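Hi everyone, sorry if this is the wrong subforum. Our group has a chain we'd like a structural model of before ordering constructs, and none of us has done structure prediction before. Sequence below.
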Amino acid sequence: MKRSLIGAIVLCCVTGFGTAKAQEKVSPADSAPYEKAPEAIKQVQPKYPEAAKKDKIEGTVWLKVWVDESGKVAQVNVQKSDGKMFNQPAIAAAKEWTFNPAVMKGKPAAVWVTIPFRFRLQENDKSQSSPVSGMKNTKQKPPADDIKVDKDPKAIEQVNPKYPEKAFQDRIEGTVWTKMWIDKSGNVVDVKVAKTENDAFKEAAID
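Answer:
Right subforum, don't worry. Here is the predicted structure as tokens:
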């Protein structure tokens, strides 16, 4: 039987940079040069609103986030939203993020970054794809694409992909859909890319 999988896909892109005195907590400028972009070291996925899940509603929330010199999120503003019901979960998640701060002239700098939180309902299907990485050394036989189960697998450990440095600097964003073979012990045996919006993100998603 086919079942729905709900996911909130998170991507981060830089929109503007500027310095600020930490003690004064002055908001950084929207646009200024930088030497090194901030790097997210802790990402928290937003909780999918139950009402949106029930009504099968999807959407994206674009947040403008002030990352201070210590790498903490000092302020979060909604830039654009496809639905108000997604705003609060996205804001709550963004406040839990932490970064290696941006660097300007060799010193940590406060910056603004834009984080789009994408809320998507994904259906299991038989999407055809060519493997990006070969099968791992195993004697196990991969399961059929249309195998029936009484209960879907549940992720107990999730690792966020590392944003490719070049894509981050070029302000490129995208989504990668992966097809994973999960064995009977719950381990990921193999990963293939079913669809991608940009090849730059493939390896990071697979890893």
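For your construct planning: The CA atoms of residues 77 and 193 lie 33 Å apart. Residues 1-5, 15-23, 124-139 have pLDDT under 50 and may be disordered.
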